[in-house]
């Protein structure tokens, strides 16, 4: 990178660390004000490459140089397998390497967040107003729930793949109601199926960085830098004053006069907090890190949507449309209480765990990727050492709660029922990767097939109890001028994909900070 000292020699009111689905929003909204100078820092690089822009190529980005490449520790309930914890290391973060699905979070989720935070601003009705303001929805009009003219373009496929069409019809045949969109009434219902809302336009991916930041890159109030790794937050007493960074192997310090915002994701954010002396005192002592603020909840509570893909073999190639995943189902199994407890999407190609792929993955086919939408299992993110360049230790603890395993067994039965329904059966495919096809018990299949949806969240939770890290204002407890704005603040994982809720977190953080700095 050239001109490093030029941008580092400037004074900034706010430093935002991470250009993903929350950080890009915070930086854009605060830089809208002429009286604030904002620095947006990204560890990765440019997002303008074919594997990112072309939506059907998203699998190529997993495990590549635009992925942090973290792996979870072997899990006791998934046969001691280590599974990947992919996160975007590029402008746009996860929104540049994900499957582009726009899922707002269920009404039940947002009302729960309002309850535990003690702030109605996190409730469904309030959040619905933000969604209406930021969206430019290209589907059927729904003035009560959808917006028009906002920064966030959301579309549905104009030409859904036959597999996607058949899946929605099969869901209906099994008693799951269908809707025009997964983000209208369906997000207030117990179950539903619809064609997915996606972040695509003109056959190209729309990242959050591309929508919020790229149009204003020439703005004098905003400085955007890439290839910059944040090592820790700097403090004067208990007031955050900037960040220590590393650029091309050299360490520098950059100062913020008003606020530091961590938007580095549910794995890197707790890591940075602990490296900065914020976390459990005994843990920090073990790594020789002086405790600035004892917050035992830092890094704890990690959640993801564990899924168990099944594959149907097809006699000839299936050419994916759009993002290759155009239909979404939320459903409630027999054990569900107050809403959907499973989420499904289809993949227009074979997708399963490496262990099962070696046994039976077909050359051609499609997949039904079904997982737990409200898991009870929780893990944690821990430090490997005090070295900022060391990868954190990730204990996902997938399926460690027996209730999750029970729901998983129910889920397998529902998936096989949907897969056997006439609309899908007419496609001429056969079960290739499933408990029945492989002659495996439900328990053995769950253990061998389990994968993450890469929706990491909940490691710096918002709330009012002693294990929470931030309050409803997203400020870190016990210190000043430090805000967290990413999915780590969620008290529990939302029912669906986390990109849209992360944008809401960014919008809320920007509103709160703008008012404070006003």
Structure description:
The protein is of the alpha/beta class and 518 residues long. The chain contains 15 helices and 24 strands. The protein has helices spanning 4-8, 23-31, 50-53, 107-117, 124-134, 162-173, 208-212, 265-275, 281-286, 354-360, 402-420, 422-425, 435-438, 442-449, 499-517; strands at 12-17, 38-41, 70-71, 84-85, 135-137, 152-154, 192-195, 200-201, 204-205, 222-225, 228-236, 239-247, 250-262, 278-279, 293-294, 300-302, 310-313, 327-331, 342-347, 365-372, 379-382, 393-395, 430-433, 482-484. The strands form seven sheets. Strands 1, 2, 10, 11, 12, 13 and 24 form a seven-stranded mixed sheet that branches. Strand 12 and strand 13 form a beta hairpin. Helix 2 (23-31) packs parallel to helix 15. The two termini are 34 Å apart. The mean pLDDT is 96.
Fold topology:
Elements: H1 4-8, E1 12-17, H2 23-31, E2 38-41, H3 50-53, E3 70-71, E4 84-85, H4 107-117, H5 124-134, E5 135-137, E6 152-154, H6 162-173, E7 192-195, E8 200-201, E9 204-205, H7 208-212, E10 222-225, E11 228-236, E12 239-247, E13 250-262, H8 265-275, E14 278-279, H9 281-286, E15 293-294, E16 300-302, E17 310-313, E18 327-331, E19 342-347, H10 354-360, E20 365-372, E21 379-382, E22 393-395, H11 402-420, H12 422-425, E23 430-433, H13 435-438, H14 442-449, E24 482-484, H15 499-517
Parallel strand pairs: 1-2, 1-13, 2-10, 5-6, 13-24, 14-15
Antiparallel strand pairs: 3-4, 7-18, 8-9, 11-12, 12-13, 16-21, 17-20, 17-23, 18-19, 19-20, 21-22
Helix pairs in contact: 2-15
């Amino acid at each position: 990178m050239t001109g490093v000292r030029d941008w580092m020699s400037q004074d900034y009111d706010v430093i935002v660390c991470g250009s993903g689905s929350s950080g890009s929003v915070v930086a854009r909204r605060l830089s809208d004000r002429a009286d604030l100078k904002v620095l947006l820092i990204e560890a990765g690089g440019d997002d303008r490459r074919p594997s990112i822009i072309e939506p059907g190529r998203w699998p190529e980005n997993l495990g590549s140089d635009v992925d942090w490449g973290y792996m979870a520790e072997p899990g006791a309930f998934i046969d001691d397998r280590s599974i990947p914890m992919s996160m975007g290391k590029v402008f746009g973060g996860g929104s540049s390497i994900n499957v582009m699905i726009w899922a707002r979070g269920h009404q039940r989720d947002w009302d729960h967040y309002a309850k535990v935070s003690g702030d109605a601003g996190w409730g469904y009705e309030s959040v619905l107003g933000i969604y209406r303001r930021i969206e430019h929805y290209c589907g059927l009009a729904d003035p009560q729930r959808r917006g028009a003219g906002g920064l966030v373009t959301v579309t549905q496929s104009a030409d859904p793949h036959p597999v996607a069409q058949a899946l929605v019809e099969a869901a209906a045949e099994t008693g799951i109601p269908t809707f025009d969109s997964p983000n209208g009434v369906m997000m207030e219902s117990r179950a539903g199926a619809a064609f997915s809302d996606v972040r695509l336009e003109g056959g190209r991916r729309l990242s959050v960085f591309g929508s919020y930041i790229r149009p204003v890159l020439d703005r004098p109030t905003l400085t955007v830098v890439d290839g910059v790794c944040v090592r820790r937050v700097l403090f004067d007493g208990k007031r955050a004053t900037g960040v220590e960074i590393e650029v091309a192997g050299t360490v520098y310090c950059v100062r913020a006069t008003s606020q530091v915002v961590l938007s580095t994701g549910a794995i890197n954010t707790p890591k940075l907090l602990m490296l900065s002396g914020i976390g459990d005192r005994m843990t920090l002592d073990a790594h020789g890190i002086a405790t600035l603020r004892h917050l035992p909840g830092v890094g704890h509570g990690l959640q993801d949507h564990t899924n168990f893909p099944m594959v149907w073999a097809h006699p000839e190639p299936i050419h994916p449309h759009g993002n290759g995943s155009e239909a979404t189902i939320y459903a409630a199994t027999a054990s569900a209480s107050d809403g959907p407890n499973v989420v499904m999407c289809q993949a227009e190609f074979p997708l399963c765990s490496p262990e099962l792929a070696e046994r039976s993955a077909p050359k051609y086919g499609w997949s039904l990727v079904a997982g737990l939408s409200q898991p009870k299992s929780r893990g944690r993110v821990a430090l490997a050492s005090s070295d900022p360049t060391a990868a954190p230790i990730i204990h996902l603890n997938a399926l460690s709660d027996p209730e999750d395993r029970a729901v998983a067994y129910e889920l397998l039965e529902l998936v096989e029922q949907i897969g056997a329904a006439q609309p899908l059966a007419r496609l001429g495919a056969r079960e290739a990767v499933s408990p029945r096809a492989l002659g495996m018990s439900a328990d053995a299949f769950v253990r061998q097939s389990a994968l993450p949806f890469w929706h990491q969240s909940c490691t710096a939770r918002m709330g009012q109890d002693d294990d929470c890290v931030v309050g409803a204002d997203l400020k870190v407890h016990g210190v000043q001028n430090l805000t967290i704005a990413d999915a780590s603040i969620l008290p529990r994982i939302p029912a669906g994909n986390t990109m849209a809720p992360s944008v809401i977190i960014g919008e809320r953080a920007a509103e709160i900070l703008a008012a404070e700095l006003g």
